[in-house]
Specification:
alpha/beta; ABC transporter transmembrane region fold; Rossmann fold; 2 domains; six-stranded mixed sheet; disordered N terminus
């Protein structure tokens, strides 16, 4: 996976990783303003309580002022009611705002992931990406909703209480202000440690999740080779490492909590002792000291809770770093600023002009070494050659999963790099050898290329692909949910669904990676007939692993070592006695035996 540059890391260090949430917060300015208003009202109501306490202590207990007590307690009930209502509104607004922001973040992150190109996924681990999309965003949700609500309340309370402490007694407030740096500096230092340890714990857990996802996706192969014990041991080791990292992060958070609470309340005790001396000397009334102490308790309590929340926020900052790394990855396949529109209707002319290519993860091993060919509209061209010859790479480049190192790939005379990738792919239908089936209904799987297709169109496509027969036998027919990766279907059934997708998409260019390789003889005959009708008038490129497929091709391109070494029809190539003739002799002789 692409790593962020050192400059990006330094930039995040300055701006704080959670700053990545600010654009999402900005979408809901009205709700933020309402939450802040409720927070201010709740804070003012809380800060009114010590003032009422001072007046009761200093004036309410004299016999001539006994009526004040009823008035003060009545007003305090009103204040408490305002405080409760404002706190409830603040909690609701802040918590739902946090949920909304994290939901937007998840959607944005997923949208970004599905837009990244094949180069990114050549090295990325699916399990780790899933961990960032779920576990990391959940960590941030906890911080943004619950922790943010607590943090905002206590920041406001701390500021208001300190201000009222200064108004009540500047001398005692001076002692508190001197103590604040002594309290805050250790909290910041421990917070950095918590963030680093939390990042390590999240990375370790992601590694474990990646291994688990890989093992579960291949569980049948794992069981077939009796690899359960080894997989169990590897995962247990990964989980223990994740536990150790999480324990280290928790230890740092516990120490942070201890230091914060001890320093905060130790300072309150010191200030209270000093204030008691002033009352004894007659320089302060008992009510004033009580008011100051309450404000000091509010401030200390707010700072103490902030020390606890700080640990959770630091953990969220670690998750934010990991998410920000993903959001900063830029796809190599970019849409041009002014994309050239492909002709409509499409013609179906495919051209490779002196194309050189090597996969980004293996730049030292060229895959294509300057191939050139043109496929005319409606022509059927088969790509033949040994494994590693570059046949699948031709498909990858035509779908613009990658860009060539040099040379040009064109569709209808337009270089693919000048067109929008989605526009290019709309003109192409692919039937791969390894079919991806999603955990959805049969109809939804067929509709992938055309979500707006009607039920009748889906059934017609399935019928042409010889899939309708087996679909009709499923419990709910086209509404039957098929397992993840189509595990409940046979290989031939999965491939017929892939063919139905291509038929339904009705694209001008067809890419068939030996589309009938997993079918039985009867189904192959049906599908070949359907594909024959489908290919009429369409440009078709076929990767032919079985040379029987090439017999009906208009032209055969024989590839070896990333080059086209032969070009012609079946009979011509057999007569030349080259690579194709040798491959044909091996396959047809084996079939005859």
């Amino acid at each position: 996976m692409s790593q962020p540059s050192p400059e990006a890391v330094q930039r995040r260090g300055r701006l704080k990783p959670l700053g990545a949430l600010l654009p999402f917060v900005g979408r809901y300015k009205g709700r933020v303003a309402a939450a802040l208003a409720a927070l201010v009202v709740a804070t003012l109501a809380t800060l009114a309580v010590p003032i009422a306490v001072r007046r009761m202590i200093d004036h309410g207990f004299a016999s001539e002022n006994a009526g004040f007590i009823d008035q003060y307690f009545s007003m305090m009930l009103v204040v408490v009611g305002v405080l409760a209502a404002a706190s409830a509104v603040r909690y609701y607004l802040v918590t739902t705002l946090g949920e909304r922001i994290v939901a937007d973040l998840r959607a944005e992150l997923f949208g970004h992931l599905v837009a990244l190109d094949a180069t990114f996924y050549d090295t990325a681990k699916t399990g780790e990406l899933t961990s960032r999309l779920t576990a990391d965003t959940t960590q941030m949700k906890s911080a943004v909703s619950t922790a943010a609500s607590i943090a905002l309340r206590n920041v406001m309370m701390f500021i208001g209480a300190v201000a009222m402490m200064v108004v009540t007694s500047p001398a005692l407030s001076g002692l508190v202000l001197v103590a604040i740096p002594v309290i805050v500096l250790p909290l910041v230092a421990f917070g950095r440690s918590v963030r680093k340890k939390s990042r390590l714990a999240q990375d370790t857990l992601a590694d474990a999740a990646a291994f688990a996802a890989e093992s579960i996706s291949a569980v049948r192969t794992l069981q077939a080779f009796t690899g359960e014990d080894r997989a169990r041991g590897t995962f247990s080791s990964a989980v223990e490492s994740a536990f150790g990292a999480a324990r280290g992060a928790t230890r740092a958070r516990a120490m942070l909590t201890f230091v914060g609470i001890f320093l905060v309340f130790a300072s309150v005790v010191a200030v209270l002792w000093s204030g008691a001396q002033e009352v004894l000397d007659g320089r302060m009334t008992p009510g004033t000291l009580g008011q100051f102490v309450l404000f000091a308790v509010f401030a200390a309590s707010a700072l103490g809770q902030l020390s606890e929340v700080w640990g959770e926020v630091s953990q969220a900052a670690g998750a934010a770093e990991r998410i920000t790394e993903l959001l900063e990855v830029k796809p190599r396949i970019q849409e041009p600023a002014r994309p050239v529109a492909l002709p409509r209707p499409a013609l179906g002319v495919v051209a490779f002009e002196n194309v050189h290519f090597a996969y980004p993860t293996r730049t030292e091993a060229p895959v294509l070494g300057g191939i050139s060919f043109t496929v005319r509209p409606g022509e059927r061209v088969a790509l033949v050659g040994p494994s590693g010859a570059g046949k699948s790479t031709v498909f990858h480049l035509l779908l613009r999963a990658y860009d060539p190192l040099s040379g040009v790939v064109k569709l209808d005379g337009i270089p693919l790099t000048d067109a929008a990738p989605r526009d290019v792919r709309r003109h192409i239908a692919l039937v791969p050898q390894d079919v991806d089936i999603f955990a959805a209904t049969v109809a939804e799987n067929i509709r992938i290329g055309r979500p707006d297709a009607s039920d009748d169109e889906v059934r017609r496509a399935a019928d042409l692909a010889a899939a309708d027969e087996f679909v009709a036998k499923l419990p709910q027919g086209y509404d039957t949910l098929i397992g993840e990766r189509g595990i409940t279907l046979s290989g031939g059934q999965r491939q017929r669904i892939a063919i139905a997708r291509a038929i339904l998409k009705d694209a001008r260019v067809l890419l068939l990676d030996e589309a009938t390789s997993s079918l039985d003889a009867e189904s192959e005959t049906l599908v070949q007939t359907a594909l024959g009708r489908l290919m009429e008038g369409r440009t078709t490129l076929v990767i032919a692993h079985r040379l029987a497929t090439t017999l009906s091709a208009d032209r055969i391109l024989v590839m070896e070592g990333g080059r086209i070494v032969e070009d012609g029809r079946h009979g011509e190539l057999v007569g030349r006695g080259g690579l194709y003739a040798r491959l044909a002799r091996l396959q047809f002789d084996a079939a005859a035996e």
